[in-house]
């Protein structure tokens, strides 16, 4: 790498003008980074951390600044208070060329933050301008032998993170690099459990992730070891209608019981979904696939009891209608 000759005054000027925020002293007037490029923010951020996720007019501007700091001798693997390195930060922000530069300058792909997360976790739950940026960053990390099945302290792998945040192309890339589709977190969550209650928009992203996982061998009926819930319990509770439909089409069992005795029909009856109509749609899907409207949890509650207690009146009406039909169809004793 060609060295850039820079005076201390030039460095101070660049640091003050380019970084995305300033760090005042107690008086609120000084700017420590303008005096010392090795100063830290309250969270331990160095200028290199900040520059690794800066807001630049072009990627080239960001690369120039990061290169400038590295040429001044900043530690490429320096950790802030949460033990994140600049590579964690750049990966989270999808800064492809900055990630490339950090790797070329010796950034380690296996450094764990205080949560145990490595940079591959960071890009798997990151926020970036385009999905393509995230894919490029993940590919760069994997090319440097980043552990695709690395676990944080909660036992989440990068695949857990990408599934929860609905990143289908990163999920595909991780699976292509032998990520374990049925890996379990501390509480027994698999990636399929997580996409069934994840945070993502649009909903189609969740369906794409779930389909990829199922195609690569995810167990549609796997139960979490802490509460025996399946992905169908989770998707029903959280109102993930399209994921519910996909799970059912793939053979999800509608009457499997959690440790409380609750079935997925119980889950939707007390769940958190967008509207009464969403609950009705999920309830109808479950009933069409054989859900027992009269199933009792260990508390003795049926789905009708739960729906009524939780003021899911439209769902309660649907369940009640099906309970009446069920009783009408039962053979009478002679």
From TrEMBL:
Gene3D superfamilies: Ankyrin repeat-containing domain (1.25.40.20)
Keywords: ANK repeat, Repeat
Annotated segments matching region Disordered: 28-53
Keyword field contains DNA damage: no
Transmembrane segments: none
One Pfam match: Ank_2
Classification via PROSITE patterns: ANK_REP_REGION, ANK_REPEAT
ANK repeat ranges per the UniProt record: 43-81, 82-114, 154-186, 187-225, 227-259, 260-298
Name used for this protein in its record: Ankyrin repeat-containing domain protein
